[in-house]
């Protein structure tokens, strides 16, 4: 659900990304160098959690930031893929790469079903339908035998990637997660800067006009929904391998709310915004957990401040100021 006040502010960054300005390339290259060197300075498991949630937020941003569709049910794709990956790897003995692919495929099918049911509605009705469907997945995860109920699926073996790379080694696991994140990020970047992405933005800006030009908008929105669900599943399946478990936490409505928070904090409709937002939220949760402070209250207060001071999100505000100074 994009408003006219925010869509105009997002244009400079999407245009910059599509034209390949040196500033955007430099930011991307600098970020890549930092990510490559990060495990030698920071805890690898913490970094892997950031990357998984960054990919999750990028997937959600593709739907809301570029398609104008607010979903409150993305936890179903994230957590559903985690369960499928964990089960296939632990119980069926599949290699980790195949388990992750099957998890993403499950999310794609689930996204197709959810999208077909919800895509004909708009605004709050669309959001509520996705929330209701996601809650159905949550109750299934709670009741079905293979999910382990409240205990979840634990002790998932990381295994050998392609039968060669031992993912029990922290650095090997980290660079595998980094490769998955970069793949997902490039898919989002290519989608946004493709003709399909341009049509998607046109639908976000003015759907009736896009229909009048002959575009079958429901088809474009459904495809965007399925792609977003698939990438969310890719993030969830990868997280299940990293932490070697899949639990109900991954499919709760709070998880859907958390990814909305990450995207809005970083900057909706920007390429780098969800990454920044995910890093900020995961960092706060990680370091505040060791204190007596109520983590949700602190994060909520920071969110309120960011909304008041950075209406476009952190990255969106930075880009808007840089463009204004040109």
UniProtKB/TrEMBL annotation:
Record membrane topology: Multi-pass membrane protein
Its primary localisation, in coarse terms, equals: membrane
What InterPro entries is this protein classified in? ABC_transp_permease (IPR001851), LivM-like (IPR043428)
Subcellular location(s): the record lists: Cell membrane
Kindly state which keywords UniProt assigns to this record, in alphabetical order. Answer: Cell membrane, Membrane, Transmembrane, Transmembrane helix
Molecular function terms, GO-annotated: branched-chain amino acid transmembrane transporter activity
Where exactly are the transmembrane stretches of this chain?
20-43, 50-78, 98-117, 124-142, 172-192, 222-247, 259-281, 293-314
On whether Hydrolase is a keyword of this UniProt record, the answer is no
> What GO cellular-component annotations does this UniProt entry give?
plasma membrane
Instruction: Write down the superkingdom of origin.
Output: Bacteria
> Which residue stretches, if any, does this entry annotate as coiled coil?
none
The record's annotation in Pfam families points to:
BPD_transp_2 (PF02653)
**Signal peptide range:** none
Name listed for the protein in its UniProt record: Branched-chain amino acid ABC transporter permease
Where does this protein come from, organism-wise?
Azospirillum thermophilum
């Amino acid at each position: 659900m994009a408003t006219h006040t925010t869509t105009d502010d997002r244009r400079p960054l999407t245009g910059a990304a599509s034209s390949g300005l040196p500033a955007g390339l430099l930011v991307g290259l600098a970020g890549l160098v930092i990510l490559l060197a990060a495990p030698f300075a920071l805890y690898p498991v913490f970094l892997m959690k950031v990357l998984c949630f960054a990919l999750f937020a990028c997937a959600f941003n593709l739907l809301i930031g570029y398609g104008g569709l607010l979903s409150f049910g993305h936890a179903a794709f994230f957590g559903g893929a985690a369960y499928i990956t964990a089960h296939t790897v632990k119980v069926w003995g599949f290699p980790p790469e195949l388990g992750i692919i099957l998890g993403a495929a499950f999310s794609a099918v689930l996204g197709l079903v959810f999208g077909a049911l919800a895509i004909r509605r708009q605004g709050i009705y669309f959001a509520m339908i996705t929330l209701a469907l996601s809650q159905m997945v949550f109750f299934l995860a709670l009741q079905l035998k293979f999910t382990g109920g409240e205990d979840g699926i634990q002790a998932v073996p990381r295994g050998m990637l392609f039968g060669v790379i031992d993912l029990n080694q922290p650095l090997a696991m980290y660079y595998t997660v980094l490769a998955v994140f970069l793949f997902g990020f490039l898919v989002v970047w290519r989608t946004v800067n493709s003709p399909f992405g341009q049509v998607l933005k046109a639908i976000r800006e003015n759907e009736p006009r896009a229909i009048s030009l002959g575009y079958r908008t429901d088809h474009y929105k459904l495809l965007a929904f399925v792609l977003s669900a698939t990438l969310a599943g890719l993030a969830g399946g990868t997280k299940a391998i990293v932490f070697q478990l899949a639990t109900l936490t991954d499919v709760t409505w709070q998880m859907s709310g958390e990814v909305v928070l990450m995207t809005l904090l970083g900057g909706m409709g920007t390429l780098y915004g969800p990454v920044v937002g995910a890093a900020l939220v995961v960092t706060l949760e990680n370091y505040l957990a060791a204190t007596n402070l109520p983590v949700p209250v602190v994060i909520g207060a920071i969110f309120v401040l960011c909304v008041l001071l950075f209406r476009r999100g952190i990255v969106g505000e930075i880009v808007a100021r840089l463009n204004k100074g040109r």
